[in-house]
Every structure is written in C-alpha cells, then in structure tokens.
Amino acid sequence: MLILDAETVRELLDPLLDSGALVEVLAPAMEALSRGDVSLPPRIAAMVEQRSAYLGAMPVYLKQPEILAAKIISVFPENDPEQHHTHYATILLFDPKSGEPLAMLDGGDITAVRTAAGSALATRLLARDDAQILTIVGTGVQARAHAKALAAIGDPSLIQIAGRNMAKVEQLARDLDAELNVSVTANSSIEKAVREGDIICTTTHAAEPVVEWSWIKPGTHINSVGVNPSGREIDAATVQNGRVFVEAISSALSPPPGGANELIWPIRDGLITADHICGEIGAVSSGDIAGRRDDTEVTLYKSVGVGVQDAVAADLVYRQAVAKGLGISLEN
Q1: Residue 200 burial by CB count (10 A; 0-12/13-18/19+): exposed, middle or buried?
Q2: Structure confidence by residue, pLDDT tens digits, 113-169
Q3: For 62, how many CA atoms within 13 A lie in the half-sphere containing its CB?
Q4: Is residue 269 a contact partner of residue 298, using CB atoms and an 8 Å limit?
C-alpha cells in the first residue's frame, strides 16, 4: 500500500488544479453519476454534538474508470485555526478487482480542491460567456482553491474577496494577487461584492445567509459550497428564484450532515418542492438537460460534496505518484 502524506499530495495536486486537468476528469465522472453508473450510498456520520462536529464516511465505486474508494472526514468547525484545521480527511483506494488496499492519501487538500474543481465545472456549464467579475465570499481553504480553480478555466477580469473578518480578507487578497495572473482585491462589504459579481462563490460555514436575493443582479451564476448542519449561507429567496443544480439530488436532500439546508429548509417550509431542483450537473455536462437558458437567469449550483469527486481526484494523484516514484510503500 502506498502512503501519500499532505506535502506529497499537495505537490501533485496543485498542477492538476492550475492546469484544469482535474476539472476535465470530473466531468465524465459526474456524467456517470447522473447516469446511475456509480455506487454512491448516503454519507453516514457520527455526530459530536457538544462541538457541533462530526466524523463522516463516504464510500464509492465507479465503473469507468474503475475506482473503489472511501473517504473518512472529520469536521470540527469550532476549532481554533491557530491550532487545528476545521477539516481532516483520509482517502483510501482499493483494487476494484480484489479489494486489496492500494493507497492511503491525506485528504485535506483533495477535499478542498475537488470541491473547487466541481464549482469550476459548474461555472463553465452555467455562467454567462461574458461573465467578468468573480466574487468569493469566505477566506478559508475553499476560498483560495476556488480562486485558483476558476481562474484556471476562465478569464475573469477581477476577483473580489469578501468576508466577515477584514484582516483575513485583505491577507487572502494579497496572497492571491501575487500568485494569480489576474487582479485580486479585498472588498469590505459582502453586499457590495455580491452586487458587483457576475460569478459568486460562497465558501463559508455561516449559520445565517451571507447572500440575499435582493443583492443579485440578473444573469449571475452562484456556486454555494458551504455546509453548516445548523444553518445556511444562501437565503430562501435566492433558491426560490434561481435555476438550481446539484451534484446528486439524493445527496443534496439527504438528512444532516450530508444534505443542503439551503434546499431542505425551503422544502420543509413549503416555499419550493424537490421538483424545483432542475437536475444534476452531470446531466448538464452530458447534454441530457438544459443549463442556462438565457443571459438573465440566475443559476445556482449547490454543492454538498460527493464521494465520486474524491475518488477521481485521489486516483489521479495516486497514478501521478506511482509514475514519479513518490510516497512510502508498505506491505499489506
């Protein structure tokens, strides 16, 4: 079994995100998921209620390319960022013919990057062709990964960072401005940044909405990837008025912590029905359903993260590691 630590995974993963290669392998995997060619049971979790935390398990089997994998992830949103990450993850790859363990990978960066690559795929499929301004709400790992992923697949004229902690907003904007070939600025107002954005990415753990429908201009595309078992980052009116897409309908509507309160709560409150979800992003990618229909529609991609994304990203990293002779090999 090959062991790949966080440093090695990061070394292999960053070029895959920066080049757009990860987005390219995600597209057929999401199409397979929508066709029913993936075994993806509901996420299960042990809840650590006194810390608003959980330990989750996400197994998956893909038929083509044949991948058998499982991710174990801990989410502790109350962690002090000076001492611990809020997310820790390990991904296991198995030989799909024998079940023998092939590799164990640190999954922290894979979790962030595959989520951002999923948003990049959704943006490519749903955003207006002339979208120029990218607004990112949030300052954590997902915010950074989204800036890199969307810059790699598009040509934004400006990236704006907004959030509740201005010091973190300014630091992330400085870091990304130095790293990316596009201007990145800090915006002191979430509302102003959202009003100006053609593409909006919300990457928060907010309990209360950070985006409101009245702020969103016609033709905007939104990627919402934040998950909070006791809250939501997008208001109900945005969901009601937007054209909504997800990775997998069954996952998006599953009970906490797997599902999206942004969708579950409006259904609970009688504001929408499950049929309001237009479909899965894989079906848009394959052409089975329409995505954006005109330049005035507001499209919303609500992501909860699905194991197929982890599996294809981990498999790609694993194959790169084998080809380059990286990692530590252990006898099974």
Answers
A1: buried
A2: 999 999 999 999 999 999 999 999 999 989 999 999 999 998 899 999 999 999 999
A3: 26
A4: no
Picking from 96-105, 165-174, 227-236, which range would have the lowest pLDDT averaged per residue? 227-236
Show the domains of the chain with their CATH numbers: 2-110+308-329 (3.30.1780.10), 125-306 (3.40.50.720)
Cα(206)–Cα(22) distance, integer angstroms: 28
DSSP symbols for 213-230: GGGPPTT-EEEE----TT
Q: pLDDT digit string (tens) for 93-112? A: 999 999 999 999 999 999 99
Q: Tokens at residue 302, please?
A: 């609500």
DSSP string across 232-297: -SB-HHHHHHSEEEES-HHHHTSSTTTS-HHHHHHHHTTS--GGGEEEEHHHHHHTSS----STT-
Q: Is 134 in contact with 197 (CB distance < 8 Å)? A: yes
Longest dimension (CA), the chain: 58
pTM metric for this prediction: 0.94
CB 30 within 8 A of CB 310: no
Q: Is 94 helix (H, G, I), strand (E, B) or coil?
A: strand
Q: Given the structure tokens 């990304």, which residue do they identify?
A: 176
> What is the bridge-based pairing of β-strands 299-302 and 2-4?
unpaired
What distance, in Å, lies between the first and last C-alpha atoms of the chain? 6
What are the start-end ranges of the H helices in the chain? 6-18, 21-35, 108-126, 141-153, 166-179, 190-196, 236-241, 249-252, 261-268, 281-286, 307-324
